[in-house]
Amino acid sequence: MGRERAVFVDRDGVLNDLVYDREEGRVSSPFSVRELRVFPYVPEAVKRIREGMGFKVIVISNQPGVSKRQFTHAEFERMNAKVRKAVREGGSAFDAEYYCLHHPHALVKKYRVDCDCRKPKPGMLLHAAEENDIDLRRSYFIGDALVDVKAGQRAGCRTVLVGHFTTMLGRMMEREGATPDYMISSLRDAPSLLIGLGERERAGPRDHVDATRPVQTDGRTPPERARTAHPERRTASPRKAGPRTSSPSPWTLCG
Ligand SMILES: [Mg+2]
Ligand SMILES: [Zn+2]
């Protein structure tokens, strides 16, 4: 069992905004670096969690877009680099990033794999824990979908769902058997949730953390509640045509 504690974070919908796809009539992950918008509060939240509280911060994300030819592998890397850069400019960093590139219905054959890493499976979390000396039971997984909650539960983490509780979400939680331990409306509220749970912030000289911020009280979810909730809460910008050409290259950090 590991000694370190981690806050695992999903990428799309947690670190960066989702995009409204007119053609598909639904909200989805960005397909290009141009579409990807890092939420403005993310760098500070990551810094408070990592530098302020001493958690490792590790990205855990399903990214089947390359396998579906929605974007190239190069674009995928540019998108990750954009998120990474924003966090670095805020004075922090990710300790590691894990992406599952597989999909059971992938167009690109080599990614058409029934892998162990695609959430809701816990593979990426287990792998990340092993490689980064993480104690999963004392770690958190913050995601915006019920697959994140499920993966976190299966890995033995404490789970935090980003979203707003609705009746529909509650029904989906019940149906999926995926009730998160906590709910917050965005990653902005994660540091205060953690403080409220007794995770003290370290006041280092280089940190300008504000430990006096009020504790987020939207904490504990009522029993039997929720699901993705993307459509309700997103004010997604319309998708613009981005590069959708395919040029798959072999790359994955898991599976
Ligand atoms: Mg997500
Ligand atoms: Zn996978």
Which superfamily, in CATH terms, is the homologous superfamily?
Answer: HAD superfamily/HAD-like
Helical stretch tally: 7
Distance between the termini: 21 Å
Note the beta-strand portion: 5-15%
Structural class: alpha/beta
Q: What strand order characterises the main sheet?
A: 5-4-1-6-7-8
Strand and helix map with partners:
Blueprint: E1 6-9, E2 19-21, E3 26-28, H1 42-52, E4 56-62, H2 73-89, E5 96-100, H3 123-132, E6 140-143, H4 146-155, E7 158-162, H5 167-176, E8 182-184, H6 190-196, H7 230-233
Parallel strand pairs: 1-4, 1-6, 4-5, 6-7, 7-8
Antiparallel strand pairs: 2-3
Residues 100, 102, 115, 117-118, 254-255 line the site of zinc ion.
Describe this structure as you would to a colleague:
- The structure is a single chain.
- With 255 residues, the chain is α/β, with parallel strands linked by helices.
- The protein has one domain: Rossmann fold (3-Layer(aba) Sandwich).
- Helices cover 27% and strands 13% of the residues.
- The chain contains seven helices and eight strands.
- The strands form two sheets. A six-stranded parallel beta sheet has the order 5-4-1-6-7-8. A two-stranded antiparallel ribbon has the order 2-3.
- Mean pLDDT is 84; it is low at 205-238 and 240-252.
- Bound molecules: magnesium ion (MG) and zinc ion.
- The site of zinc ion has 7 residues, from loops.
